[in-house]
Write a structure and sequence with these properties.
Elements (H helix, E strand, L loop, with lengths): L1 E4 L2 E5 L17 E4 L3 E11 L2 E11 L7 E4 L1 H25 L5 E6 L4 E6 L6 H16 L4 E7 H6 L13 E7 L3 E4 L15 E9 L2 E7 L1 H22 L6 H30 L1
Antiparallel strand pairs: 1-2, 2-5, 3-4, 3-6, 4-5, 7-8, 8-13, 9-10, 10-11, 12-13
Length: about 280
């Protein structure tokens, strides 16, 4: 099956390696091609068991000959980093904040992750630091990530976490991270937690009564985050002409000097105004 409008393409194949958007995880991207055409795939959606590949015709003319479907492996790996990280984060939140924590939703992209959860009080900065440190400790443990198909009853008896309100088939896929985390999930994951690299929490907020949200980055995106911070610190050092361990002291000194000069300026203006009168 194919649909063409200008260069916008929708393809349905009898077999595909592409993962369709589902369960809060974004779809794969990549390309579908043969000797006569190439289509850049930017989204995949599943409807009534059929996988629809949305893309743009890059070259050639579409035909019904055999073709090759290729996913962008780096893009998928980044998605997997963030998806496995959400499973870890779910359990870490329970460990740090309490068993009342339950997932209420998530959104997993290649660039970042978003995790929504039940919570009835503001998370302190200290608690956020503990959560981030525990997350990265579990990442460094390089825990194995495994999957297994079993019945819903067996999965729940084994301690696997199921999302409240979610409808499951009789047979489900269980994703386990060592002995630390076990959840029902049909998404893409890593083989070991060490592949996540490093997780950096960007923000924590309340999006509704009793619902919290954490946004974070992993892998190369967290690496770029810290590199940008390092570059900014270097620029500040050069501007202030001080070493990194003296930056804060220098800034505080400049703030104090500015306050003193502002006060002196106010006094001078008051005196000038008095002389005019």
């Amino acid at each position: 099956y194919s649909f063409v409008e200008n260069k916008n393409i929708i393809l349905a194949l009898d077999k595909t390696p592409f993962y369709a958007e589902a369960g809060g995880q974004i779809a794969d991207i990549g390309k579908i091609s043969n000797d006569d055409f190439e289509v850049k795939i930017i989204d995949v959606q599943k409807e009534n068991g059929i996988m629809f590949h949305f893309g743009e015709l890059i070259s050639g003319l579409l035909n019904d000959k055999k073709c090759v479907a290729e996913i962008d492996e780096d893009y998928r790996k980044n998605i997997a980093r963030n998806h496995t990280a959400t499973h870890l984060l779910h359990q870490v939140l329970k460990d740090v904040l309490g068993e009342h924590i339950n997932q209420k939703g998530s959104f997993v992209r290649a660039e970042h992750l978003r995790f929504d959860f039940t919570n009835f009080k503001q998370i302190s900065q200290n608690e956020l630091q503990i959560i981030e440190r525990k997350m990265n400790a579990k990442i460094r443990e390089n825990l194995p990530v495994s999957t297994e198909i079993m019945s819903v009853e067996t999965a729940k008896k084994s301690g696997a976490i199921a999302l409240f309100g979610e409808k499951y088939d009789n047979k489900v896929r269980v994703v386990s991270i060592g002995d630390y985390s076990k959840e029902l999930c049909g998404g893409i994951h890593l083989k070991f937690t060490g592949e996540i690299g490093f997780l950096k929490i960007l923000s924590e907020s309340s999006i509704a009564a009793g619902i919290g949200r954490i946004e974070a980055i992993t892998g190369e995106f967290s690496e770029n985050y810290f590199q940008n911070l390092a570059d900014k610190i270097i620029n500040i050092e050069q501007t202030l002409n001080v070493k990194s361990d003296s930056v804060e002291k220098k800034i505080q000194s400049l703030i104090s000097e500015n306050k003193e000069l502002t006060n002196e300026l106010k006094k001078t203006k008051m005196k000038s105004a008095g002389n005019v009168l």
